[in-house]
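Q: what does this look like with acetoacetyl-coenzyme A bound?
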Amino acid sequence: MHNITNVGVIGSGQMGGGIAQVAAVAGFTTTVFDTSAGAVAKCQATHAKLLARAVEKERMTAAEADAAKARLTYVTDMDQLAGSDIAIEAVVEDASVKAKVFSALDAMLTGNQILATNTSSISITEIAAATKTPERVIGMHFFYPVPVMKLVEVINGLATDKQVTDRVINLAEAMGKTAVPANDRAGFVSNRVLMPMINEAFYAWMEGVAQPEHIDAIMKLGCNFPMGPLRLADFIGLDTCAHIMDVLAEGLCNDRYRPCPLLRQLVVAGRLGDKTGHGVFKTA
Ligand code: CAA
């Protein structure tokens, strides 16, 4: 089995940036690709800040942080991912955009490199269908914030080769994560269970069952969640939550997964959560 030493990450946003950081800290030569120079510069600055913070908190030495930074390369030309043993895609949650990325990766990486997606709910089988080699396409679903969250949900598509799954599980564990398998149904396990709960919290608010801060206090104190569901929606992004509910409704052919009207309304109003400074709660 060919060992993974070079990790390529497509997308330098919150998820891609976090995945790249964790890979580099774990010792992998890591290349982060994004289409805009501004996006990769922002990612590099975030890495510098978070690694400095880790040194300050004595979670790593300054030499270890420098070594991690030295293993990271930021590129705006996708061809520079050609040396990757695995490409981990973390672009926008749009099936047509992902199809284009996977078709390009399939044409560029023509050996036994792995093509992984960090999709949070889109079917792996559907993404794999954009390639001629669906047996090497797999879901590698990380959680936000990636450096902190321990889980990688590993999802096989219909055609994923067992060796690919084993290599991805080994990689996730080498990155300090716990890999847990799930099957390729819309939302997998994490978002199949989490998002309807968040959606239900919006219904509870919309129907006046309690005020948002009380819904969150009840769930935090009563269920021991680190964040209440509405605060978590702000953290994830209300647009992402609504989109995942739409994917569940479509993928599971069941209207009970439709986004709550209030969630949709806030998205339309531009109240997307932490990224706009106002979602359910004001955070800026
Ligand atoms: N990147 C890196 N590190 C971060 C971070 C980020 N974006 N946000 C927080 N952290 C770190 C902080 O730096 C802090 O470390 P230090 O002690 O070095 O400062 C540590 O996490 C704890 O943070 P805080 O002390 O500020 O706050 P906290 O104790 O409340 O923890 C939290 C913050 C880890 C985010 C915690 O509230 C939590 O676990 N929340 C739930 C997160 C969750 O459910 N994530 C999954 C979302 S769903 C998803 O990702 C999947 C999907 O498909 C939508």
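The chain has a mean pLDDT of 97. Residues 50, 53, 57, 120, 143-145, 147-149, 190-191, 226-227, 232, 236, 240 surround acetoacetyl-coenzyme A (CB under 6 Å).
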